[in-house]
Amino acid sequence: MAAAEVDLGYLASHLGMPEANLTTVVTDPTAELVRAVLSAVAAKGREYDALYTQKLQLEVELETSVRSAEAQRDASNETARKALKDVEDLRRKLKDEGMYTPKPHVKP
Q1: DSSP 5-35
Q2: Residues 96-105, buried b or exposed e (16+ Cβ, 10 A)?
Q3: Which of 19, 83, 91, 92: CA 20 to 30 A from 68?
Q4: Is the dihedral of CA 35, 38, 40, 42 positive or negative?
Q5: What percentage of the chain has pLDDT greater than the value 70?
């Protein structure tokens, strides 16, 4: 069974190791080099976990902010609707009492 080709240059840059070390691990591994590679892989794994956790926290914060903004928007819309209804009611009362005549809209 043939060994799969591995892009050692990519792995070296991703793990922050010299490519020569990875080449030696593939061709003539020593316990020390294998430990160094596994240590680098573990460090990248921890880094990934930390970034993933941060990503999840940011997604939750974003969702919370969006929901809060939507709730504020809805409350503002409801306040505006109520104010408009109050104005209409007051105009109707004034009209019924004969104290209000609508002014025609003049376009500038």
Answers
A1: P--HHHHHHHHT--HHHHHHHHHS--HHHHH
A2: eeeeeeeeee
A3: 83
A4: negative
A5: 91
